Amino acid sequence: MNDLQPSHPVLSARGLCREFSLTEGRSLEVLRHLDLDIHEAEMVAIVGLSGVGKSTLLHCIGLLDTPSSGQLIYHKDGQTWRSPGLDEAQRCALRNQFIGFVFQFFHLLNDLDVLENVMLPAIVGTPKAEWKQRKHEVEARARSLLDTVGLSGREKQAPGTLSGGERQRVAIARALINNPRLLLCDEPTGNLDSNTSEKIHTLLRQLHEDFGTSILVVTHDPDLASRADRRLAMIDGRFESAADGTDR
Amino acid sequence: MQYQTFLSKRYLKRRWAPWAAALAVALGVFSLISVLAVMEGFKLEMKERIRGSLSHVVVKGSAMRMLVGEDPLLEAARETAGVEAASPFIETLAIYRSTVLDYCILRGIDPSSEPKVSDFGLYLLSDEEIDRLQADRFLMLPDDRPPPDPQRVSEMFSLERRRQMLRWRLRGDPSVGFDEQAPPQGLVVGIEALRSGRLALGDVVQLSSYSPVSYEPRIGQFIVVGAFQSGVYEQDQRWAYSDIRALQQILDLWDDEAQDMRITGISLRLSDYSQANQIREQVQQEIGRRMELDPTDGDAIPWRSMEIKTWEEQRENLLQAVEIEKRIIAAMMLLIVAFAAAMIFLILMLLVIEKNRDLGVLRALGATRSGVVILVLKQGMFLCITGAVFGLLGGWLLIENINQIHELLYLATGVRLFPPDIYYLEKIPAHLRWQDMVLVCAPTLIFGFLGSLLPALWAGRRDPIKALHHE
Q1: Which of A64, A97, A116 sits opposite B464 (nearest CB)?
Q2: B212 and B169, same structural domain?
Q3: B199 lies in which domain range?
Q4: Which A residues 191-230 touch B at CB under 8 Å?
Q5: How many alpha carbons fall within 13 Å on the CB side of residue B96?
């Protein structure tokens, strides 16, 4: 547990269900009435076998997917957003400002250099008229984040020239550029060797403590799960114990 | 900075294939603009030459009854505001025999007033010019010739000139048997009739036509006293001019009813051609009014059916043919632009497939569906606009230097792409109009937009989750 005491939830999920339609009128229920609270400055790890719905949960929370039923509530500075009830622009704004994504396969844009990749969410989220004023501030923050993840001096390098671990560091820096409330990490070390994974685990934990960002990490890795404040096990679309999701 | 602009720059910077599409657009626009400019130049050149041979407006009677009352007709026309000059003419078809049996459009003109209504005086060649033009079959009259002497046309048809030509002719062949004191009527033919060898200066030819009054064949002896070059090949080959009075006698155009000689019509030159329709109305009203007067009135014109046409209406078919040809070529060449737009479509589709994962990442980072649509659309339109701008620029440069380039090609290959003897133009005419630029650019941009829209919409509909799972 970090030094910052978790208080208010930044995200609450209530009765979250996600069904996928199959052929012949059948459907597959991937998430079954899930309740989950993630508090400020809390790191939560979700573990479970493949296919239990971990990634689907992450996509629903990240507003990339829409739950079949249930509610998602996002809190920030006294403001609340509820899904359903968000339009496309609000969903995109939340993805950009409230949430940061870290993917298993890093997903850096090969046509941009390292610095540009890190700046990308800020470029996406800043209106054209404001960009001129914000550019230097964003660039300075991107350089600072790269310094924090240990990639200072590599700003102009192409992502293709970096190792897997370095690319994931760039992806983590990118996820943090807009100072999000919630970092969603989908198997962040699933594609890395154990040595590099360990370094990423340490980095995530360190960033969590430094920035106080809430982190929801889906992982198979017991080492990473053990570093979380809370560890939730998923089985067949539910948490192992129904109360787990909202417990602290 | 809008992220679409930022990413478009990066995507286009590192790939050559999209630029191939832009090049295709540029080539399409370049070809289209060049062809349209040359066609327009050709049309203008032809119009100018036809206009020179014809007067601004022609008042014409029916083919058989023609018009009578030459003097009051001319008076009526000259008194109308906006009419600068008027001159009578006769037009008939005639056949003649020289080395072969041939035909010509024979125009009887008044040598003193004709130069005031048409450019005939300008087109009339001196003997020295005829020699030069016959020596070089590609040679055209220079644009900067000295202004013609108004007396030259009258001198050309004068008795003195006819005698001079006949003397010259008889000296060559004294056995011809013509009386030098009573030479045949003068005939001025197109330079191509001389160049083709069918006629020569001093030739005495027998022209046969039909009298529209008696319907009897009429024959007249003429001596070729001069030549003209109008710049319109058909006219320079087929048209011939003689004195209107002589032709009236030969064709027996006496009208018993009106007790006057008939004429085909009168030619008018206007002080401002842009007012042609208005002036034409006024001339028609004035002539119509005089035709209604009592025949004993000095101003009266005997009633005959008539029509008044501008020179453009007279040669409407020819001018329309060129305009239609221009439109057809433009329509055909738009296919090149459509092909270029299809290239943009294919390249953008490939780009969307290639960048599927990037588009998913962008959606995860907060880009909206419409933002992704704009990203792809922007790239397509950027390629299209860049291609169009370079195409226009290239087309403009070509048009500005078309004759120098043509000359260089001729020097390098020995092949004339634009032979002067076929097109009857010494230089390739080219005229770039803003309307043609719009005609080229608007469809290009529309095709480009349509070619970009489908990949853009497709990109916007891609599922970001599937895209993110793709590695």
Answers
A1: A64
A2: yes
A3: 55-314
A4: none
A5: 26
Q: What is the pLDDT of residue B30?
A: 93
Encode pLDDT of B151-172 as tens digits.
Answer: 888 999 999 999 888 888 777 5
User: What residues of A are in contact with residue B7 (Cβ under 8 Å)?
Assistant: 109, 111
Query: For A124, which of B10, B14, B362 is closest by C-beta distance?
Result: B362
B303 with B329, same domain: the answer is no
State the pLDDT at residue A3.
45
Tell me if A123 and B3 make a contact (CB, 8 A cut-off): yes
Measured between alpha carbons, how far is B234 from A31 in angstroms, rounded to an integer? 87
Closest CA–CA distance from residue A245 to any residue of chain B (Å): 24
Interface residue A107 vs chain B (CB under 8 A):
yes
Q: How many Å lie between the alpha carbon of A240 and the closest alpha carbon of chain B?
A: 26
Q: How many domains does chain B have?
A: 2
Residue type, B96: Y
B437 with B393: CB under 8 angstroms? Answer: no
Q: For residue B227, which of B239, B217, B218 has the smallest C-alpha distance?
A: B239
Residues of A in contact with B366 (CB under 8 A): 92-93, 95-97, 121, 124-125
**B310 shares its domain with B328:** no
Helix (H) or strand (E) holding A170: helix A164-176
Q: Are B183 and B242 in contact (CB under 8 A)?
A: no
Give DSSP secondary structure letters for B228-278: E--S-HHHHHHEEEEEHHHHHHHHT-EETTTTEE-BSEEEEEES-GGGHHH
Same domain, B353 and B429: yes
Q: Are residues B61 and B188 in the same domain?
A: yes
Say if A54 is an interface residue toward chain B (CB within 8 Å): no
DSSP A110: T
Q: Which range has the worst mean pLDDT, A51-60, A104-113, B235-244, B462-471?
A: B462-471
Verify that B42 and B77 share a domain, yes or no.
no
Cβ–Cβ under 8 Å, residues B307 and B42: no
Residue in chain A nearest B12 by alpha carbon:
A111
Domain boundary among B289, B314, B339: B314
Interface of A with B in 9-38 (CB under 8 A): none
pLDDT tens digit sequence for B136-153: 877 777 767 777 787 888
- Does residue B281 sit in the same domain as residue B330? no
**pLDDT, tens digit (0-9, with 9 covering 90-100), for B254-298:** 888 888 899 999 999 999 888 888 999 999 999 999 999 888 888
DSSP strands (E only) in B263-366: 265-270, 306-310
**Do residues A47 and A232 make contact, with C-beta atoms less than 8 angstroms apart?**
yes
Domain-terminating residue out of B314, B339, B359: B314
- Would the CB atoms of A97 and B366 count as touching at under 8 Å? yes
Residues B29 and B158 grouped into a single domain: no
